[in-house]
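Re: the 261-residue chain
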Amino acid sequence: MKSRFESPAWLAALARLVHNDDAGSSANALTDAIGVAVEHEGTCLLAFHRDAPPEVLHHTLGPAGRRHYVDRYIAGPYLLDPLYQLAVREKKPGSCRFRDATPDRFRSSEYYHQYCERTHLRDEMDYLADVSDNSTLVLVVGRRTRLFTKVELQRLKLIEQLVQAAMQNIWQLWSTDAGKDNRGATVHRRLTRCFENFGEGLLTEREREITQLLLRGHSTKSIARVLAIAPGTVMVHKRNLFAKLRITSQYELFSRFIDSI
C-alpha cells in the first residue's frame, strides 16, 4: 500500500506549490499540501516581529472569526502568547506542538480562556522559519475534533523542510507586494511599554516581573524557577500586588492589563 507521499494527490499538491507565483495562491497551495499529509481544520500564517505587531499573511477563518480571533489578538494580547515568545527568541525549533511549548499553568490563564479556548482547537502544530534578523514566520496547523496521532505528528515533522521552504517563498512574494511603513513599530513599542510598565508607580519592580509571568500563564513554582527565588516569596509578592491593584483573581488581573492597552 502506497504512503500518502507517493499518492497522486501529494504530487499534484507539490505541483501547485511550485507553480504559484503570488503569496495568496502559494499559501493556499501549502495549506492543501499539508492537508494531504494530515487532516486538519485550518491554518494561519503569521509574521512575528521583535519590533512590530504580528502580521497575518494568510488564514482560513471567516470574517467573524478574523475579527474575534485575529484582529483582537493583534491589538495587544499577542504579548502574552507563548508562540510569540518562542518566535522572537534567538534559538527556536523548526516546528513544535503548541501544547508542548506553553507554561505549566497556561491552560488556567485568562489569556488561554479568552483567546485560545474560544478557537476550539484541540491540537496545534506550528512551523517556524526565520525570514530576517527581526522576523519569524509561523504557520499554525490546527485541529478541532481530535488530537494529532503519533503517526500524524511524524508526518508533519517529515515535511518540515518543505513547509519552511514554502514559507520563505511566501514571505518573499508577500514582502514584494506589501507596502511598509513605521506605524507598526510605533504601535508595538507602545504596547510593549504598556506590558513592561504595567503597575508602574504602584508595584515594585519584582512585583511587576511576577505580574508579567502570571499573565503569561506561569504557576508559583514556575515563577520561582524563572526568577530563582523561593515559591513562598512568590506567594508573598502575589498577595501584595493583588492588594495594591485591589483585585482578587487572575481574571481581574487580565482585565486590568487589557484595559491598560
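The first helix runs from residue 8 to 19.
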